[in-house]
Model the fold of this input.
Amino acid sequence: MDDDWLWEALGLVAEVTEDATGGGLRGLVGLALRRNPRRAHLLVSRVLGKHLPVPPAVALEAGAALAARARAGSAAAQASLASGETVFVLGYCETATALGHAVADGMPGADYLHTTRRAVAGMRSELELAEAHSHAVHHWLLPADRRLLTDPRPLLLVDDELSTGNTAIGTIRALHALAPRPAYTVAALLDARPAPARAAFDRLADELGVPVDVVSLVSATVQVPADVAERASAIRARFAAPSPENEADAARGRVSWVRPPWPAELPDGGRHGWTPAHGRLLDEVVDAAGASIAARLTAPAGRTLVLGTEELMYTPMRLAAALAGVTGGDVRYQSTTRSPVHPLDVPGYAIRTALEFPAPDDPSRVSQVYNVGPARHGGATDSSAAGRYDDIVVVVDGGVDAAADRGDGPALAGLVEALRTHAPVTVLTLPSFVPEGAR
Done:
C-alpha cells in the first residue's frame, strides 16, 4: 500500500473529512493510471472486488456497511419509514452492480435494479442514461416490471465513487421527470466531490422540492493539478509496462465446464430487477452451487480466484463466499472489466498486470482482468504470492453466446485461453434470465 510516490508524482492532495471505516482514504483505495483521454488517474477500490481481488466477505461487508450508513442518515430511508413504502435501490453498471445489490440486501424489503450496457433482444430501454466521463458512455434501464421506475417510492442510488456527482444528478433528474419521488439518496463507498459539486446537490434538492442526500463510507476532497495528464504521461514513459507472456512457453492448465442446478425463476443478477423473494431463493441454492464448484477444483483447500464477468458480479461474489465456506481455502473474488487501466509492475501501484481478451458478450470489443499473476513454471507452487492461484473459476451467463450452452462458445475462447496459462480454469455457466415478455 506504499503508493505515496504515485500520489506525489501526480500532484494529488487528499484531505479526509469523514471516515466510517477507520482505515482512511488509502485503506479504501489504491491508485493507478487510466487509459482514458478524459481522465488521467483511477482510484482503485480495495473492497469492491472489481479491479483488485478481495475475499468475498470483504466486498459483501462493504455493501452492508454502506447500507447501514444509508439506513441511519438518508432521506430515502427516513421517507420509507414514514410512508411504509420500501426503498427502491438502483446500482450502476458495471462497477457497482454487486455493490448496489449488497446495499439492497441491507435495506429491508428493497427491490433492486442495475443499469446495463447489454442490449437484450425483445426489450426496449425504459430510460437511457449518460456517463460523460466514462469509457462507455451510454447505459440503459431494462426492468421486467416498469413499476420499479414509476412507483413513487424513495430511491437509493448506489455507486462505488462520486468524483463530480454529475451522473447521479442526471439520473435523479431523469427519474424524477418520469415519476416524482419523495426523497433521493446517493450512497457511495467514496465521496470525493469538490465543494462546488457538493453544492450542486443542494441546488438539485431545491429545484425538485424533495430531499437529496449523500452518504458514504469515506468522504474526502482530492485536489488535482491542471497538468495531471502530462504528469501521468511522464510516469508511463518512466516505467515500462509489463511485457506480455510468451504464450508458446506458458503451461496451459486444464479447463472444465459446469452448469450447477439453477431455478429457472432465479435471475443471474439485477439487470431486469431483483426482489427479496429472489434473494431468499439464492440463499437456498448458493451452497449447493459452491459444492459443485469445489468438486471441480484441482486444489480445493488452496488459493482460488472466482472471477465474475463485467456486469455479472453479485452472484459470482455470493458463489465465492459459498465456496470459501465449503472448502476452507483462500478464496478471492474479482471481475473482468471494460475499464482500460495502464498496468505498471511497480511497488505501490495498484494494477500490476493486465490480461486482455474479446469481451464474452461482445467479441468486437476488448475486456480486461487485472492482477492475475504470471503462470507458475517448472512446478512452482507458491500460491501465496499475490495474483497467483491454484484454480480460477470464471462465472458467465448463458447469454454471452448461444454456444455457451455447450460450454465451448467462441465468445469465451479468448477469456479461457488468457486464464488457463495462469491456472486450471473451471467455467461455470448460469442460465441467462430473460423476462417473459422478451422471449
